[in-house]
Amino acid sequence: MRTVTGIFQSRADAERAMTNLRGLGLPEADINLLTPNASIEQEVSEVPTTETEQPGMG
After folding, report:
1. Distance CA 32, CA 48 (A)
2. Taking the model in full, what pTM does it have?
3. Among the four 21, 22, 28, 49, which has the fewest Cβ within 10 Å?
C-alpha cells in the first residue's frame, strides 16, 4: 500500500480530491481528512486505528 498526502488551499479543494480518490476506487476507510479547525476529538474519531500492534512493532 502507498501513502499519498496533499495540502490544499481550501476544504472544498480537499473534498474534491477525496471525491476523485473515491472515483478511482480507493475505499472510503482508506481516505482521511485532517483540518486545522477540527477538534482533536473529531480528528481522532475519523482516523482508523487498531487495538493491536502490527508485526514488527513494539
Report:
1. 9
2. 0.57
3. 49
Contact 32, 18 (CB under 8 A): no
- Torsion of the alpha carbons at 50, 55, 57 and 58, rounded to the nearest 10: 90
Backbone angles phi, psi at 30, to 5 degrees: -95, 5
* 1-30 tens-digit pLDDT: 778 889 988 888 988 999 999 999 998 888
Please answer whether residues 47 and 39 qualify as being in contact, where contact means their C-beta atoms are separated by less than 8 angstroms.
no
Cell triple for 56 = 514488527
Question: Domain spans of the chain?
Answer: 1-27
- Cα–Cα distance between 14 and 22 in angstroms, integer? 12
Helices (H) and strands (E) in the chain, counts: 2, 0
